[in-house]
Design goal:
With about 250 residues, this protein is α/β, with parallel strands linked by helices. It has a single domain (about 15-240), classed as Aminopeptidase. It contains 9 helices and 8 strands. Strand 7 and strand 8 form a beta hairpin. The chain is globular. The relative contact order is 0.19. Residues about 1-5 have low confidence and may be disordered. It comes from Eudromia elegans. InterPro entries: Cytosolic_carboxypeptidase, Peptidase_M14. GO terms for molecular function: metallocarboxypeptidase activity; zinc ion binding.
């Protein structure tokens, strides 16, 4: 997404948030969450304007377009689970991953760019609510800093569960974007998998499940975007009284 001249002026350090979605074709809720993020960031909402002035958002909304077109649940046209091939993607067999990884590595090696976040959006078939997976680090301070964003998101989104958020280094997940990039990027970068339930969420303090709708998924996306305002402590720059987060459609 385009950022303002303030962030892209020559010589300025760019803080980049990289977001990907739909690497698993059957996980349709991830597209609605991503749509909510995009629609909010390009809107005229005062928070969106501040975010565009201070951050660069790079978004790949569909990493597995051929799998989506074919109606596959998890695999690409070639039969690969793309989210297990980040370590060494092939330009022939995993072209979208290859291209996105090249772009991320290029930005990582650019001294004028600080790649601060990578978030890969998925949907979960058995868990409820939205939640995140993060990485495990030997550095306790880095591990604690990694928990800040999901904690803030939990305050902004009633359907996001911090208690379901977990940090792991499961060997089965070694080829995922979150795990691979978490090992590649430096200690100022944070990599997450954002999961959202296929079916419902439970609001804190209640016991009844609320069915997810397309609008509720997009609202989660809007709340993900607005959480960057809190993370970077940019609230004082928002002009006028607090504006409600608009409905996407």
């Amino acid at each position: 997404l385009p950022s303002s001249a303030a962030n892209l002026r020559p010589g300025a350090e760019q803080k980049v948030v990289f977001i990907t979605a739909r690497v698993h074709p059957g996980e349709t809720p991830s597209s609605f969450v991503c749509q909510g993020i995009i629609d909010f960031l390009v809107s005229q909402h005062p928070i969106a304007k501040v975010l565009r002035d201070h951050l660069v958002f790079k978004i790949a909304p569909m990493l597995n377009p051929d799998g989506v077109y074919l109606g596959n649940y998890r695999c690409s046209l070639m039969g690969f689970d793309l989210n297990r091939h980040w370590v060494n993607p092939s330009a022939w067999a995993h072209p979208t991953l290859h291209g996105v990884k090249q772009l991320i590595v290029q930005m990582y090696n650019d001294p004028k760019i600080n790649l601060e976040f990578y978030i890969d959006i998925h949907a979960h078939s058995t868990m409820m609510n939205g939640f995140m997976y993060g990485n495990i680090f030997e550095d306790e301070e880095r591990f604690q800093r990694q928990a800040v964003f999901p904690r803030l998101l939990c305050q902004n989104a009633e359907d996001f569960s911090y208690s379901s958020t977990s940090f792991n280094r499961d060997a089965v997940k070694a080829g995922t974007g979150r795990r691979f990039l978490g090992g590649l990027l430096n200690d100022t970068s944070y990599c997450y998998t954002l999961e959202v339930s296929f079916y419902s969420y439970i609001v804190g303090g209640t016991t009844s499940a609320v069915p997810y709708t397309e609008e509720a998924y997009m609202k989660l996306g809007r709340n993900v975007a607005r959480t960057f305002l809190d993370y970077y402590r940019l609230n004082a720059l928002v002009e006028g009284p607090p504006a409600p987060i608009p409905k996407t459609r």
